[in-house]
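REQUEST ID: PR-0412
SUBMITTED BY: lab tech R.K.
PRIORITY: routine
TASK: structure prediction, single protein chain
INPUT:
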Amino acid sequence: MIAALVIFLITYVFIGLRRVPRVHIDRPAGALVGAVLMIVCGVLTARGEEAVAAGSLVRPTLATVVPADRSHFRTFRIVLVCNTPETRMNGLQGFRPLGPDEAALFLFDKPETVTFWMGSVAYPIDIIFIGPDKKVIRVYRNVEPGSHDLYPSVKRARWAVETAAGAGLKTGDRVNIE
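STATUS: complete
OUTPUT:
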């Protein structure tokens, strides 16, 4: 929304005050163009392109996975942060499909046993539960859309990460959230 406001102001100032030979665009026209751009940015925001419809705005955050066998590490860019009861309940429902290097991060106030479900998530995902020691405690691979199954953490989790199916994380891997 901040981007839309900046675009609106720039459009208003530059198009609204600018005189082009043979064509005159006055302030109301500049305001109209700015309003249209603001609506377009709002639509993109609602579709999850710039911000998260179901969660909070995300600053660049990374989750780096160090495998238990110390082979090669993997980094995921966090594109959705679920840190309230409402955003945790909605999760990826209605969110665009995750790319191979993207993830949703679920934050819990304190370590607790939690259970996830697919709801209306429209694409397969991996669900990874992470304990207070930053180690992966449970992984559900290739959870299919439309599944009515429940996916419990079994142990107390401090975080959960959802990725596109096939992320390759396993129990015992260490996850550092930056």
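NOTES: The mean pLDDT is 76.
REVIEWED BY: pending
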